[in-house]
Amino acid sequence: MEMSGAKQVVPAQGARGILAFDVPEPWRAEAVRPEVELFAAMPPVENEFTPNVVVTVNPFDGSLADFSRRAMTGIEAQLREGRIVHTGRWAYTFADPDEEGGLPLDALGVPVTAHEGRVIEYTHRAPNGRTVSGADYLVLLKGWAVQISTTSSIQARFIFDEPFEAMARSVRVLRSPQADDAVASQAGPTAAAGRVDEQASADQGTELEELFGHLAAGADLGTGVWMSGAAIARTGELKDGVVGRLGGADPVLDELRDLGVLDGGRLGGMGSFMAQALTEAPVRLRLTGRFLDGETSLQAFVHGGNVLLAAEQGYGPRVLNQPWHPDDPARFNVQVLPITELTSAMARWAGVGPAWNLHVAPFVIEAALVDQRLGGEAAVPHGAGALLREAWGQPWFTWVLEAEGPSGGIDPVTYVNAGPRGHFRIGTVEDPSGGADRVGLWATESSFIFRQFEDALQAVVHGRPVVLG
To answer: What is the mean pLDDT of the chain?
Structure first.
């Protein structure tokens, strides 16, 4: 048994003797299926999803970008409702410390990677029907493609990020590929051609795979009940009421009857919850989106362990022309979800998905020019670099996150979704010289925004400050 800081770790060897990794207490390594080289899980807790790590390994002679493409395709095709949230560069190992013991840093103050991998974050529906969080760490080691799949509840991802990464970085190779390993490789990654993000690759000096197709595929809010705004409002008004048969024609009541929300003059199961949520929900979240001159919204009313979701068209329908209600685009998509599903739904509505979020220059721009761009088209900022020019020319979907609970709310957070160039946080930057304030565009990875949604939700539910402000 070894010591790692204050925690004990136990080395565990894989089923085929290819890999080993270190398992920290109280995690436990187990042998599960022949195709799984390494496995570890936390001790199970009743009614909670058990965090676990599954490591697969296959011979591979392609590039890291090839491996990433194959892994993303597998997540979407093989997992139930698999949706990619984020794909990024990941440091399997860092550069050695310098003579004074300091880590070499890049221009942004980030430790320099010595052996690069990928991390792919995603959500999928577990066998028990619950949407859970996955993060796969990919690395090529001595002829092997190693895929370290980590899974937890969405709510617990904050807690387990550190041990997941530590276990991923502890994986080591014990032997080289052999002839009889080819059978196992049939289910694993193979070299595959794929599109390249030319702009990001040129900026970073390495091949980076195109990610926008995965972002678009994950921007679907899913099925729900289609309701007019008037019908939603009337549902709240009917909370304790009874509708008689007399009183003349009322198209709103007819709509509620047709949907089954109103049954026998009273609100049914879904209608009853809707009315309670609309009038009594102690926690409410809202995303207000804007594309060109049109405003749209997603509203969430948290009542007990469930959420009433009422959404107009989000990023997918507004920007990508994805299907919405075929006869009436003004209809709301109304869903009743467990609270554990809310973060995923908000991310999909806002188009929070994988992109190579790279820092633009200049990132501080005249406020009037940004305001003009938010409303449509505007001249490219003076001195704009290649990445800013590309981001500036993308369709911009702007959204604002607001949340409130019994103990107060959070400060609104504003982002621009620039599609293939990802998300940029928008904020005012004061001019120290006393001139006009400017607007900053901070490139923000989709993994951070996903966690920010969950952080905001937990903050207003539990009455605590946000961590990811």
So the answer is: 91
